[in-house]
Request: fold
Amino acid sequence: MHSMRWKVDAIQGRAIQCRSIQARISQNRSTDFFLLKGIVAMKRIVQKGASGIVWRLLCFCALILQSSLLLGDSSATAHYLANEGVMVVHGDTKVVFDPLFNNDYGRYQLLPENMKQALYSGEAPYNDIDAVFVSHSHQDHFSPLDMLKLMRLRQGIVLYAPAQAVDELKASAPDDAIFKRVTGLQLAYGDKPVVYKANDLIIEAVYIPHSGWPERMLDVQNIAFRITLQNSTTVLHLGDADTKDAHYEGDAEYWNEREIDMAFPPYWYFSSKNGQHVLENRLRPGHAVGIHVPTAMPAKVQDRPEDFRDRDLFTTPGEIRVIDKH
Reply:
């Protein structure tokens, strides 16, 4: 890394340094849009003429930010899309969960159009995606037409989805060549987990009933995917899994055999005694980030219902979390 000259009193020098920092961060594929906005805000402060002490503090913070982002190239990150859509990146391996859907039911976060187009085109950071996973075929998780378009445009992607979702795809294009890259999971309640290995991925899937069991949603194939990237980072995406411990205790050995670095449970796991029990005693992830969060959830932590004030939630498209080894 080339050396950077620090000028305390020269406004022009400060502006050049800010542009240099911004350029370096812009080149990082894992950088969040909101972090870039922060650098732009710093640049505005410089242009207005920050004091020497303020400028030194700003530069110090920027270097810490830059270093953490550069280190992030060799670590794992989780990138929030919308609702239960999450992309996980480890090195040059990328997987995406529940990315494309069109119904927010008037209460959930829709995928911003610019992010959807970036998925279609392969624009960074959504370039070089290896696999897409669909938890279930509800309209706030899965759009067959949008998924068909993605699979046609991005021919390096493989898809794993419940048989119900694959049937919806085939209803739209029964003879399409994409189905050579599609794996349908025909799992039912009580079935043992299944395992696939491909493209530096260990793909494990188990049927967990949709929330509301046993009173409703009994016909929905909800799949919990446990994915290990590059034989290192393991994440768990639960879809709309019901919180009852009975769904997990029968596969206790399965849940114990691999440590989960980060889990993505639906947010109601945090407000349910059953859900908290499952997280703490069955899944035991290194960290959990709630998904499927309604847009009505207050942005300020102190304004949220008490059950969610000390919990991590994905609420804003583009958010990033660093995944630490458990």
Remarks:
- Confidence is low (pLDDT under 50) at residues 1-50, 66-74.
